[in-house]
Design goal:
By secondary structure, the chain is an alpha+beta fold. The protein has helices at 2-14, 18-25, 31-37, 47-68, 103-108, 129-141, 204-214, 255-264, 270-277, 283-293, 306-318, 334-344, 402-409, 454-493, 495-506, 510-521, 524-531, 533-547, 553-560, and strands spanning 74-83, 86-92, 145-150, 157-165, 170-179, 186-194, 219-223, 229-232, 349-354, 358-360, 363-373, 384-389, 392-394, 429-437. The longest helix is centred in the last third of the chain and has 40 residues, at 454-493.
Length: 561
């Protein structure tokens, strides 16, 4: 018995612990491999949305490239139905083109791009979008994406057929070469994918229409799978102001980010580190931060410990630092936003506003809003909400977005729309909200909804209220004129009887009396009011533009309560 127990003990000590067996199964996962199994995180969760996301990512890249090169964008979008649930999406632009060696990485490597590390307004941020579309096409059809790009008429056009090595997140080049291309510069992308084409509020058609609204400087030529062509002509030849890159603002820094910056900086002192790595920090402000943190300004960044970094962060919060610069933003502007709305939506009244810059987590942003009312807009339906971020339409996840929440929490009854509790107002209206920011806080990688930061919600509500007041003035004036005309029409019905009675009483000719009453029918003040309608709208807008920057939180609270 004792021998058996001793043998069991020896066997147990010689056995390899299970942790070593488990360790053999563990291996690194590439980002491409991760998104292969989790493509829904990027918005490719159904066939209909996949088609939209593919077109969206390519068009967004084209617009960014054209604006950076200061070229008025002309974008062609064509969708061809190959067979049931199999489509080819072709997007072509007149942008600056892409350098040959960069083409494989841009289109066939996830998390590769130029905008992630720059703080300025741009449509793309993560370096995932277009390569994710190529990955989805590869997974669903097994076919390579075809890319043609040319940078100058003096250089040839380069052609690639690309797929992604998902194990290593690297481009695989199936074919490459040079070809003749009529365009002097630009890029053409062809992606075969499994998809479904249906018209509606969340379709490619709607995305391109809204893109034309929010980008009045673009021309889009769209051919749908039924070979129907729609041209969205530009409303202006003025390109948006070019956004300038800025450094992060101290108020938006977190402890881990601060420690990383201290580790990698080339600055020799803490004071020079603060002035060179952050915006709005001069030598005086840097000394004040060091004073509040109780750390010497000439301390070497490499000698700053975690506890010292925490004190620096506290010192930043105690120091009054002016808001970050706003030349990193390129908002649409009140006038162009209204032009874009007039171009694509048939209505009888339009108004727009652009708020002064604000800040969340150290990131500057601008909220713009517009309203189209009446005309061909349906009367007894919920108002149509158009959401945009950095000039890109947001068509999905409306309920999770702070823009929709702000609209529902605003009281629309004083502005002439019906509303039941905290819900979307009902009436013939289109409500537009646009956010420009160096870093839009999307709730997921699919970039469809904006997070509920209190600073953002406050600015959206103020912008909506400014437009709401203009809308309310118009609706009240329209109601007043309608009632005056209705009274005049009622008087007109009784003119023959009144003329007959007056003729009997006065002895005057009945026809002469009727002519006199007809002259009195349309009152001069009604005529004048109708003629001056547009002028009054302009005056209202000027008045609220002057007062909008001085609104207090209390005023905003009164209107939303």
């Amino acid at each position: 018995m004792a021998k058996q127990e001793a043998k069991a003990e020896i066997t147990e000590t010689k056995e390899t612990p299970i942790a070593y067996e488990l360790a053999k199964r563990q291996k690194e996962i590439s980002v491409a491999e991760f998104f292969t199994k989790n493509r829904h995180l990027l918005g490719f969760d159904n066939k209909r949305k996949a088609l939209l996301m593919t077109v969206k990512e390519a068009v967004d890249n084209s617009l960014d490239a054209c604006e950076e090169a200061r070229v008025l964008p002309e974008i062609s979008v064509e969708i061809i139905e190959m067979s049931e649930f199999k489509y080819k999406a072709i997007i072509e632009d007149n942008g600056p083109g892409i350098v040959k060696k960069q083409i494989p990485n841009i289109f066939a490597k996830l998390l590769y791009g130029s905008k992630f590390h720059t703080l300025k307004q741009a449509r793309g941020q993560q370096g995932i979008g277009i390569s994710a579309a190529v990955l989805y096409g590869q997974l669903t059809t097994g076919r390579a994406a075809k890319i043609t790009s040319r940078v100058s008429k003096k250089e040839p056009a380069h052609y690639y057929e690309l797929t992604i090595d998902t194990q290593n997140n690297k481009p695989l080049i199936g074919k490459e070469g040079e070809l003749e291309w009529a365009k002097e510069h630009g890029t053409r992308v062809e992606i075969d994918l499994e998809a479904e084409y249906i018209k509606g509020n969340q379709s490619v058609d709607e995305y391109l229409k809204q893109t034309a609204v929010i980008n009045p400087h673009v021309t889009i030529i769209y051919t749908n799978p039924k070979s129907e062509q729609v041209i969205y002509a530009r409303a202006t030849d003025k390109l948006p102001d070019q956004a300038q890159e800025i450094k992060p603002h101290p108020y938006g820094i977190e402890l881990g980010m601060l420690i990383d910056k201290l580790r990698w900086t080339e600055s020799r002192t803490l004071q020079s580190f603060l002035t060179s790595e952050f915006s709005r920090v001069g030598p005086g402000t840097a000394k004040e931060i060091c004073q509040h943190a109780a750390i010497l300004p000439n301390t070497k960044p490499s000698e700053v410990s975690r506890d010292m970094a925490e004190k620096i962060l506290q010192g930043i919060q105690k120091t009054k630092i002016i808001a970050p610069p706003t030349d990193c933003l390129s908002p649409i502007g009140q006038e162009l936003l209204e032009k874009g709305l007039r171009k694509e939506i048939r209505a009888e009244f339009y108004c727009s506003t652009s708020r002064p810059p604000a800040v969340y987590r150290g990131n500057p942003f601008v909220i713009e809003s517009a309203i189209a009312y009446g005309g061909e807009i349906p009367k007894d339906e919920k108002a149509n909400i158009l959401r945009f971020a950095n000039r890109v339409p947001l068509l999905y996840q409306e309920g999770a977005c702070s823009m929709a929440k702000s609209i529902m929490e605003t009281n629309w009854k004083p502005y002439g729309l019906q509303q039941s509790g905290d819900s979307v107002p009902v009436g013939p209206a289109v409500l537009v909200v646009h956010m420009s920011s160096v870093w839009v806080p999307f709730t997921s990688e699919s970039k469809e909804a904006i997070a509920h930061y209190s600073e953002i919600i406050k600015e959206i509500k103020l912008a909506l209220q400014e437009c709401g007041r203009l809308l309310g003035s118009y609706v009240r004036k329209k109601t007043m004129i309608s009632s005056q005309i209705e009274r005049a029409n009622m008087f007109e019905r009784y003119i023959p009887e009144v003329a007959d009675s007056l003729s009997v009483l006065t002895g005057e000719n009945k026809e002469k009396i009727m002519q006199g009453l007809q002259k009195m029918l349309v009152k001069p003040e009604i005529k004048q009011e109708i003629l001056q309608e547009d002028e009054d709208d302009k005056l209202y807008r000027m008045e609220f533009k002057k007062s909008k920057s001085g609104e207090s939180d209390e005023e905003a609270g009164k209107e939303t309560s």
